[in-house]
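Notes on consecutive records. When two proteins share a document, each keeps its own sequence and its own token line. Never mix them. Below: protein one.
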Amino acid sequence: MQQGSGFLSQRQRRLAWLGFLLAAIQAPVAAKLVDDSSWLFSLVVALMVATVIIADDGARRQPAQARSSD
């Protein structure tokens, strides 16, 4: 059984992980330094990027034949 490939290339996947880590690290730092709630934007961006990474993982774990019959 062959594994399918995701919709992100390997480079896009690495950049998504980098973006996730940077946004996830920046959110608590901004929360500590800034009085308003603008740090929530970084948290939302990190969650959106994490959702894309999880969706790509799901597409990669799905067998290639199962996706082609959809």
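Protein two starts on the next line and is unrelated to protein one.
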Amino acid sequence: MTDERHPQAPQDAGAPAEIRDIHEVPAVEVITTTAVHLMTAAAVKVGLADSPDARELIDLDEARKLITALAGLVVSAAPEIGSQHAGPLRDGLRSLQLAFREASPFPDAPGKGPGEKLTGPVN
């Protein structure tokens, strides 16, 4: 049985509204929103938080994981979401990779930083 408003969506009265409505969200929006969440978390972990205690929040191990995950998402999704969406995500990723290098007391060799295996060396 289908929902009359959305003939392709299965009707399930027991499903939460979030699940019934998620089919209305375009994939590009889900992808970019996820990327923004990863960027925000990584920015905090590399010390770019807009707060007086930003330096205390630095956690480069966590930042490395977030930036690498972001790189994987951006690189793999770029062909699907188009350059108008992928371009700003790539710019944000590059900025985070550079911020990570600057925050690190022992910077990684070029090509060895977070996500650089996927994006190539960032200078």
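For the record: The chain has five helices and no strands.
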